[in-house]
């Protein structure tokens, strides 16, 4: 999307109806400039933000007061970013165990009320993070930035197939303004945060779990410009749409959340629906961490509100093209400062972006750090088979790899077409090419694959006793 289009959208805001709307508009104006700051300029501003954050943490947070004492930084005002790398990395398990020791005794009243977010039931280490209204404000702000970067029709029709809370759905269902379409509903507007700034089009909602025929009936009736859906749900839907030769003529973009998006899914979406797939990188603990670049591949970090480091096993920064742990620091959370928090994902470091934005660039989000195979000698190796493009094979609908023993893997496959001995050999050879030295692989054809409580399809599951609960 060109800068001119973004500027046009930014200027098309509806009206300043409240001080809240005015602050969102001011923020977008600010971000429209800061995205073009040079990396050095952004780093200077980040250093000032870190100075203020660490000062607050050292004064008000028991855990950090203790850490700074250990590091012999008695006067935290003397803390500077040169000392940054001496600060410990906080694992998910440490965050969970430290709990209230990470809460600030006081924080400035201007940050608003605080509440808790929980996340990570599927990762083995659920965490609970205290955040304030200020963090919620920036979640909305970055959601609006995403709309500026990617939505080419804010007045268009959205089909939301991600699902919403069942209570909210019931309330909307019985609202007299709600229209019932097929087996779903249509409401006015896309909801916050976009409705604060723009007069958006209608939004169709259908809860996950509906069969594909019902989904497709809903979509063809709605004829949406945009679809919101989970990646694993999208893959299944694309296969159905392809087999039935269904057209959605107005569709421009498909938006996904929560699961890792692979290149083959982007390509499938483009070829079956002629629509671009847009994904962002967000987490309940932090907010929106990175957005897909509007004109090139990869993700731009929201450097105005979060510092991202990609670190290797020895906590050294990774270089371009290297994959490491994502370690984040929230620049906005004063209720429970998260400093150098290893969120549990891995990402590949990208180079400078041809779009010219100075915001740090990640080439791709690789997946969860606990996606490790354990070899027979108990050494670990990363489970990253995205380059095999298994899901791109015509006869594969979806798959999951399970490590059942130190020398055994099971590849579970839901077939798109009949799977015979030839197809099983193709799959075995793919896995053996990288892992055959250590593991024997069984291929099992299944009718469906389980989802986590939050609806995610995990590409890898370990059944080894020492891998079930994730170590820091
Ligand atoms: Zn870019």
Features:
single chain, alpha/beta, Rossmann fold, GMP Synthetase, Chain A, domain 3, 13-stranded mixed sheet, 12 helices, 31% helix, binds zinc ion
Note down, in words, how this protein is organized:
Helix 2 packs across helix 6, helix 3 packs across helix 4 (62-70) and helix 10 runs parallel beside helix 11 (263-273). Among the domains are: 20-137 and 283-368, ANL, N-terminal domain (Rossmann fold, 3-Layer(aba) Sandwich), CATH 3.40.50; 372-462, 2-Layer Sandwich (GMP Synthetase, Chain A, domain 3), CATH 3.30.300. Strand 4 (179-181) and strand 5 (184-187) form a beta hairpin. The strands form 4 sheets. Strands 4-5-6-3-7-8-9-10-11-15-14-13-12 form a 13-stranded mixed sheet. The protein is an alpha/beta fold. Mean pLDDT is 89; it is low at 468-472. The chain is built from 12 helices and 21 strands.
Could you provide a short overview of the structure?
This protein has 472 residues and is of the alpha/beta class. Helices cover 31% and strands 24% of the residues.
Number of helices: 12
How does the major sheet shape up?
Answer: 13 strands, mixed
Biggest sheet strand line-up: 4-5-6-3-7-8-9-10-11-15-14-13-12
Instruction: Calculate Rg over CA atoms.
Output: 23 Å
Category from helices, strands and their pairing: alpha/beta
Separation, N- and C-terminal Cα atoms: 40 Å
CATH superfamily membership of one domain, which one? ANL, N-terminal domain
Q: Give the assembly state of these chains.
A: single chain
């Amino acid at each position: 999307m060109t800068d001119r289009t973004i500027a046009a959208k930014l200027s098309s805001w509806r009206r300043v109806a409240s001080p809240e709307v005015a602050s969102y508009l001011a923020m977008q104006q600010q971000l429209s400039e800061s995205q073009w700051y040079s990396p050095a300029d952004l780093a200077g501003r980040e250093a000032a933000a870190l100075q203020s954050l660490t000062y607050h943490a050292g004064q008000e947070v028991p855990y950090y007061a203790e850490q700074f004492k250990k590091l012999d930084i008695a006067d935290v005002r003397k803390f500077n970013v040169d000392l940054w790398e001496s600060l410990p990395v906080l694992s998910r398990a440490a965050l969970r165990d430290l709990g209230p020791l990470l809460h600030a005794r006081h924080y400035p009243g201007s940050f608003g009320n605080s509440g808790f977010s929980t996340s990570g039931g599927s990762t083995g280490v659920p965490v609970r993070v205290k955040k304030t209204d200020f963090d919620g404000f920036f979640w909305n702000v970055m959601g609006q930035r995403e709309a500026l970067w990617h939505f080419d029709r804010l007045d268009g029709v959205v089909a939301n197939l991600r699902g919403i809370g069942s209570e909210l759905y019931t309330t909307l269902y019985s609202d007299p303004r709600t229209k019932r379409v097929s087996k779903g509903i249509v409401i006015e507007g896309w909801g916050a945060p976009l409705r604060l700034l723009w007069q958006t089009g209608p939004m169709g909602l259908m809860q996950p779990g509906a069969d594909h025929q019902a989904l497709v009936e809903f979509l063809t009736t709605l004829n949406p410009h945009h679809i919101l859906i989970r990646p694993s749900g999208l893959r299944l839907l694309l296969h159905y749409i392809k087999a039935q030769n269904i057209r959605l003529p107005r569709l421009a973009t498909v938006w996904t959340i929560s699961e890792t998006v692979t290149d083959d899914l982007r390509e499938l979406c483009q070829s079956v629906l002629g629509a671009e797939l847009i994904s962002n990188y967000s987490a309940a603990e932090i907010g929106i961490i990175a957005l897909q670049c509007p004109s090139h591949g990869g993700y731009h970090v929201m450097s105005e509100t979060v510092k991202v480091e990609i670190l290797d096993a020895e906590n050294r920064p990774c270089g371009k093209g290297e994959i490491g742990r994502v370690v984040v620091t929230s620049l906005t959370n004063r209720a429970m400062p998260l400093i150098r928090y290893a969120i549990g994902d891995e990402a590949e470091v990208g180079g400078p972006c041809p779009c010219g934005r100075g915001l740090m660039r990640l080439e791709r989000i690789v997946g969860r750090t606990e996606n490790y195979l354990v070899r027979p000698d108990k050494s670990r190796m990363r489970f990253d088979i995205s380059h095999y493009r298994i899901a791109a094979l015509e006869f594969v609908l979806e798959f999951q790899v399970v490590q059942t023993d130190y020398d055994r893997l099971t590849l579970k496959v839901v077939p798109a077409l009949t799977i015979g001995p030839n197809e099983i050999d193709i799959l075995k050879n793919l896995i053996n090419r990288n892992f055959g030295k250590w593991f024997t692989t069984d291929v099992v054809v299944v009718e469906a694959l389980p989802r986590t409580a939050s609806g995610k399809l995990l590409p890898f599951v370990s059944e080894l006793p020492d891998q079930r609960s994730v170590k820091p």
